[in-house]
Amino acid sequence: MKETCDIGIIGAGGVAARHADVLSGFGDARIAAVADPDGERAAALAGRHGARAYRDHVAMLESEALDAVYVCVPPFAHGPPEHAVIEAGLPMFVEKPIAIDLAVAEEIARRVAAAGTLTAVGHQWRYLRVAERARELMAGREVRMLLGHWLDKVPPVAWWSRLDGSGGQVVEQAAHVIDLARLLAGEVAEVHALESRTRAGGAPDSDVAAATIANLEFQNGAVGNLAATCLLAWKHRAGLEVYAEGLAMELSESWLRVHTGAAPDVVEDEGLAKTRIDRAFVDAVRGLDDDVRTDYADALRTHRVACAIARSAVTGRRVAVEEGALW
Ligand SMILES: NC(=O)c1ccc[n+]([C@@H]2O[C@H](COP(=O)([O-])OP(=O)(O)OC[C@H]3O[C@@H](n4cnc5c(N)ncnc54)[C@H](O)[C@@H]3O)[C@@H](O)[C@H]2O)c1
User: Fold this and answer.
1) Which intervals hold domain GFO/IDH/MocA-like oxidoreductase (predicted)?
2) CA–CA separation, 44 and 225 (whole Å)
3) Ligand 1 atom closest to Cα of 16?
4) Among 40, 43, 105, 124, which is least packed, fewest CB within 10 Å?
5) Distance of CA 74 from the midpoint of ligand 1 (Å)
6) Residue 183 Cα, ligand 1 centroid: separation in angstroms?
7) Helices (H), 139-212
8) Residues 104-122: what's their mean pLDDT?
């Protein structure tokens, strides 16, 4: 492995810019190339990092001697980029959600496993110090109940308000909370969801529900609830409450409140999860460390839960997460 890890980025939007800034701050990583069908966006991001710009990710993979690739496309565009990276035999960081549905994600997972591709997925909440602290506090206890929420606005990207663009709010946003719930309470067995008839943002062609509520039954017998809305003009709250015998915890992206009866113990997060997730991936690519906390196979389990909720909200019936694989 070279001293400097040359990285290609597919998709040059908001999250790609964030990863590029973080990666460029490491001494052992360099943005070598950026591909986006929007040539101006590719050129702008590439220009900021002294990288080459491409409109086509296949041309980028053929022309560049890359060590790893970040796939930062919108949810609807997953599939062809991942298959091309697997074909090229390169490690791959994929942003969440890994697709808008299960068929695309299941097929990528199958090919990742067959090729032995090193993968990481952008569930950076696993790198929150407060999530690590919550796990320590849960050691030796059984989670009995979880209350998750993502109460937010419609994000300012054109593809978000269409199911065939984003997959809906639970798939696109609340996936972070589902991933955290799985980390603390294990796998979800079954879900039952309801969604409001109001559509996101009120745009005439919007088909994403403005509010969704889901009940979750975990394999270990714990029960949970997830509430998501995009009715607001601001990000109101996103996080998870966890209840065990004699212990209540409230976890957000910035802090953890621990209740054992007296005044809550409040722990502030250091705010480095978005750096730590990229550091872990580069270390894994360079063979220096093995701290990738969500690989593709694991992210698929989170995505199955989100898709099962989406399916249940539409069909109105309980959906086993395994059954969701048919969605
Ligand atoms: N982990 C996180 O906290 C986090 C934060 C923000 C966004 N995201 C995720 O990242 C993804 C992208 O979000 P964004 O805000 O950057 O979106 P965006 O719309 O700002 O950018 C997406 C870019 O991908 C490009 N694109 C579309 N199809 C493509 C293709 N086939 N090949 C290459 N490029 C293509 C678009 O032209 C656009 O420039 C979303 O799935 C989002 O959920 C994750």
Assistant:
1) 142-245
2) 42
3) 16
4) 40
5) 4
6) 25
7) 163-166, 169, 175-185
8) 98
pLDDT at 327 over 70: no
Q: Please tell me if the CB atom of residue 79 comes closer than 6 angstroms to any atom of ligand 1.
A: no
CATH architecture of the region 125-271+302-326: 2-Layer Sandwich (3.30)
Mean pLDDT of all residues belonging to the chain: 96
Ligand 1 centroid–CA 96 distance in Å is: 9
Question: Is the CB of 95 within 6 Å of ligand 1?
Answer: yes
Any alpha helices (H) in the chain, and if so which ranges? 14-24, 39-48, 57-63, 80-88, 102-115, 129-138, 163-166, 169, 175-185, 273-285, 296-315
Q: How many other C-beta atoms are found inside a 10 Å radius of the C-beta of residue 3?
A: 7
Mean per-residue pLDDT, 278-290: 97
Residue 70: count of CB within 10 angstroms of its CB:
28
CATH superfamily of 5-123+275-293: NAD(P)-binding Rossmann-like Domain (3.40.50.720)
Ligand 1 atom nearest to 159, measured from its CA: 19
Contacts of 302 (CB under 8 A, 6+ apart): 96, 123, 175, 178, 179, 182, 294
pLDDT band at 118 (very low <50, low <70, confident <90, very high): very high
**What's the pLDDT score for residue 18?**
98
Mean pLDDT of 10-37: 98
Q: Which atom of ligand 1 is nearest to the CA of 10?
A: 33
The per-residue pLDDT for 48 is 98
Under DSSP, is residue 74 helix (H, G, I), strand (E, B) or coil?
coil
**Residue pLDDT, tens place only, 203-245:** 778 999 999 999 999 999 999 999 999 999 999 999 999 999 9
Query: Can you give the pLDDT at residue 125?
Result: 98
